[in-house]
Amino acid sequence: MSAARTTIGLIGVGRIGTMHAKNLQALRAEGVDLVLADAHRPRAEQLAAELGVRAAPGAEELFGTVPDGVVIAVGTSHHAPLIRRAAESGIPAFCEKPVAQSTEASLPVLQTLQETGAVVQIGHQRRLDAGYLEARRAFRSGELGWLHTIRAITCDMFPPPVEFLAGSGGLFRDCSVHDFDVLQWLTGQQIVEVYARGSNNGDPAIGKVGDVDSATTLATFEDGTLASVSATRYNGAGHDVRLELHGSEDTLQVGLDGSYAGRSAELEVGFPLGTHHQTFHERFASAYREEMRAFVQLVRGELENPCTAFEAVDASRVADAAQLSLETGVPQPVRR
């Protein structure tokens, strides 16, 4: 199949959809053709003209062209019906996380995928990041020994609009879920219990919509290993996403490079010297490019699924437990 050209349809050309479209168009020389669609047709047509690709009148018309694969980059409320539409049409799909607006709403989607055997990749892009891949390799090879301490950090430089937060499900579900997912993927173990605490010292409006602007989760794995997962909306130095793996044989850090959003208190240390990232788009630019390349390879049958819908929903279950722990003030088991 890879010798022939591969047509990828993309639904939703907002900020992240536009990024995916540009990354897919960069694969044109590798045999990828792109078709765009958006609920606001002129927006799709404008981007299509800029990229020199085709635009369909809408999502249904795009499905009617029977593309080889479809990328779903629309609002969360539209994820589930479009995933099921693709599954029932036998078209492999990539969809931004989450699978649906809640874990409960995801379950009928998973049932459809089981019944149809459909191929669906969910957008947990950290699995395609070079640093996280190397950390996984180093741990799985035994180079680090057994892990005694894991620290995962996701710090946004500034919060998204309060309107987004009001429907995002909260800091654990829209932010820390990335750490929950990548930690389970990296270690090969499930998180079985979480204890979460949060605070609000920034915009009071965040608290008024039921969210926190900073939080830490203590996660316990099947073998008893502990991990701290910290997140905030207010990291003034820049966007900071890192992972520390402290093992009995060695220690490894992901994201500790010249762009690290911080500075040393040791006067003789000049590191870091690079420009700090401001958003996750910059921090994971390479991972997002690899994510689209991986989806094309998945469609062509050249690669195993980097992140299944079942794995993504499992990370959402951990986020649900963290939210419940925050609300109740006590540790919560992850219910599966």
Automatic annotation (TrEMBL):
Domain annotation Gfo/Idh/MocA-like oxidoreductase N-terminal: ranges: 8-124
Matching SUPFAM superfamilies: Glyceraldehyde-3-phosphate dehydrogenase-like, C-terminal domain, NAD(P)-binding Rossmann-fold domains
Pfam families: GFO_IDH_MocA (PF01408), GFO_IDH_MocA_C3 (PF22725)
InterPro entries assigned: Gfo/Idh/MocA-like_OxRdtase_N, GFO_IDH_MocA-like_dom, NAD(P)-bd_dom_sf
Keywords (A to Z) from UniProt: NAD, Oxidoreductase
Endpoints of the signal sequence: none
Domain (GFO/IDH/MocA-like oxidoreductase) ranges: 132-252
PANTHER family in the cross-refs: BINDING ROSSMANN FOLD OXIDOREDUCTASE, PUTATIVE (AFU_ORTHOLOGUE AFUA_2G10240)-RELATED, NAD(P)-BINDING ROSSMANN-FOLD SUPERFAMILY PROTEIN-RELATED
Family affiliation: Belongs to the Gfo/Idh/MocA family.
Record-given protein name: Gfo/Idh/MocA family oxidoreductase
Organism name: Nesterenkonia massiliensis
